[in-house]
Write a structure and sequence with these properties.
Largest sheet of chain A: none
Number of strands of chain B: 0
Number of domains of chain B: 2
CATH topology of the largest domain in chain B: MetI-like fold
Oligomer: heterodimer
CATH architecture of the largest domain in chain A: Orthogonal Bundle
Helix content of chain B: over 70%
Order of helices and strands of chain A: HHHHHHHHHHHH
Structural class of chain A: mainly alpha
Number of helices of chain B: 11
Order of helices and strands of chain B: HHHHHHHHHHH
CATH superfamily of the largest domain in chain A: MetI-like
CATH superfamily of the largest domain in chain B: MetI-like
Number of helices of chain A: 12
CATH class of the largest domain in chain B: Mainly Alpha
Strand content of chain B: under 5%
Largest interface: A-B, 54 and 51 residues
Distance between the termini of chain B: 32 Å
CATH architecture of the largest domain in chain B: Orthogonal Bundle
Number of strands of chain A: 0
Chain lengths: ~260, ~260
């Protein structure tokens, strides 16, 4: 049945096949162009390694237990950052979204501090939390706090007033209002905020690792740069991009399904 | 207006916001002086304030500011030229748009700045690396918003162009692009903000260029008041930049 449906959809929508063909053609052109550039010798040797070298490096990386140890450290740092930055951002957003006066007083601070480059706080974080995982978690937390707080505040303001009045008429406590009314009603902006927050937490944590660390994926990337192991660097970046985009999609889908 | 009503008004709220920031700074000063916060970790806010004129003169901040501004300018020119062209290309060829738009959206979510070691290898430790990272980080929103703007052109405007028998090039320059400008400027604003964040960040990371490098140098010298002062300066510069782009966007979109 499903097969029949798929066939009928394909027949009904020949444009989809053309789109797939164009995509395949673009990917093939990029890969061929890359391989040609790698073999041409136009750039310094190894700056553009051959596809086979990159493929072999990806396989070596995925077979290396050290990689998973470093991945676990980075994942734990990002998880800690999301926990601290996410919860504080969510609480701040709910508070500012629920109270117009507080919003007028403080939201502009968050709004304007949001687009500043957070990595410049890293020297301060090192002084406060040391050179270990603490400063990386702090970097991630500072990075993800702002988008989550802004999204939560905006989501709070979009909640149907009727729902809030219903909660109050049932004499719901502040905690019940948050868990039973606010969070379910503002799930979409919160999910979007968490996805944005995760993206910048990954960037903040990994950049901090590239600057000063002796473990984690950021450290591995900067080590590959320092030793000019280009296939390994490409492999790390490919795996990192796949994981980052996958985690973002997973978070979006997981939270949406859960909600 | 009574005092109570004023306190609850927009003006009162803004005053409260400013007073809170000042009180926080004064509180930190008091806690450091009382010895509750280690002054070798957090310098006195009064020291930070006093360090700002020093770093402006001794560290040549204005020259560094100009260096960073130049990098942002080059990145923004590249963003406008390449981003709008690619957006127009995706709009012109529908099949290309259908094939690539989700890729461009994925590019917007990708942590591009983490590729800076790769850019270092390709372009060297130079301003080109910084500009290219800024450009790559800001490209996706410019493309997406250009496509959105061009696709949202009102049918009647396109029909008017056709009735005047405009060539495809005239149709683009006289009808499509002017109609898409508000959306294009939103994309450029987003792209510029991403570019600015990444440019200052990479300057800090590779210890090269303008304001980002200044923070790194001061931190390496353990000049605490200077480091904090430079961070405050960069935050201020970012806020001004953000505010200017906001106002520019509003000015260019008077109808909304």
């Amino acid at each position: 049945m499903a097969e029949t449906l798929r066939v009928s959809v394909a027949v009904a929508n020949p444009g989809a096949r053309r789109v797939t063909l164009v995509r395949v053609a673009i990917i093939a052109a990029v890969l061929l162009g890359w391989e040609a550039l790698a073999r041409s010798g136009l750039l310094f040797r190894d700056v553009v390694p051959s596809l086979t070298a990159i493929g072999a490096a990806v396989a070596r990386l995925l077979a290396n237990p050290d990689f998973y140890g470093n991945l676990g450290i980075t994942a734990a740092e990002i998880g800690g950052a999301m926990l601290i930055g996410g919860l504080s951002g969510l609480a701040t957003g709910i508070l500012l979204g629920a109270n117009r006066f507080l919003s007028r007083a403080y939201e502009s601070l968050i709004y304007y501090l949001g687009p500043t480059p957070k990595i410049i706080f890293f020297p301060v974080m090192i002084m406060w939390f040391g050179v270990g995982s603490g400063s990386k978690i702090a970097m991630g937390a500072v990075s993800c706090f702002f988008p989550i707080a802004i999204s939560a505040a905006s989501g709070m303001r979009q909640i149907d007033r009727v729902l809030i009045r219903v909660g109050r008429s049932f004499r719901a406590s502040a905690w019940q209002m948050v868990t039973k009314i606010y969070l379910p009603a503002m799930r979409q902006p919160v999910v979007n905020g968490l996805r944005l927050g995760l993206g910048v937490a990954i960037i903040g944590t990994l950049l901090a690792e590239t600057k000063l660390s002796n473990r984690g994926i950021g450290y591995l990337i900067i080590q590959a740069y320092a030793t000019f192991d280009m296939p390994r660097m490409y492999a790390l970046l490919i795996v990192l991009f796949v994981l980052a985009i996958g985690a973002n999609a997973f978070l979006g889908r997981g939270l949406a399904d859960h909600a | 207006m009574t005092l109570k009503a004023w306190a609850r008004s927009r003006g009162g709220a803004r005053v409260l916001g400013a007073v809170t920031v000042v009180a926080l700074i004064a509180g930190v000063e008091a806690l450091i002086r009382a010895g509750f916060i280690n002054r070798f970790i957090v310098p006195l806010p009064s020291q930070i304030l006093a360090a700002i004129p020093r770093i402006i003169v001794e560290e040549n901040v204005l020259h560094r500011f100009w260096q960073t501004a130049q990098e942002i300018l080059w990145a923004s020119l590249l963003l406008a030229a390449v981003g709008i062209s690619l957006g127009a290309l995706l709009h012109r060829f529908r099949i290309l748009r259908l094939a690539c738009e989700t890729w461009v959206a994925a590019l917007a979510a990708a942590p591009i700045v983490l590729m800076y070691p790769l850019f270092l290898v390709i372009f060297g430790r130079s301003a080109t690396t910084i500009v290219m990272i800024g450009f790559a980080a800001g490209l996706a929103p410019v493309i997406l918003k250009t496509v959105e703007g061009l696709s949202g052109t009102r049918r009647v405007l396109i029909d008017v162009g056709r009735s005047f028998k405009l060539s495809p090039s005239q149709q683009f320059w006289k009808i499509l692009l002017p109609a898409a400008l508000p959306s294009v400027f939103v994309g450029l604003k987003l792209g510029l903000i991403f570019a600015m964040i990444n440019i200052v960040g990479v300057e800090f990371l590779i210890n090269f260029g303008g304001l980002g490098q200044l923070i790194n140098e001061l931190a390496e010298r353990y000049d605490l008041p200077g480091t904090y002062g430079a961070i405050c300066f960069v935050i201020l510069a970012s806020i001004v930049f953000f505010d200017v782009t906001e106002r520019l966007e509003q000015w260019l979109r008077p109808s909304e």
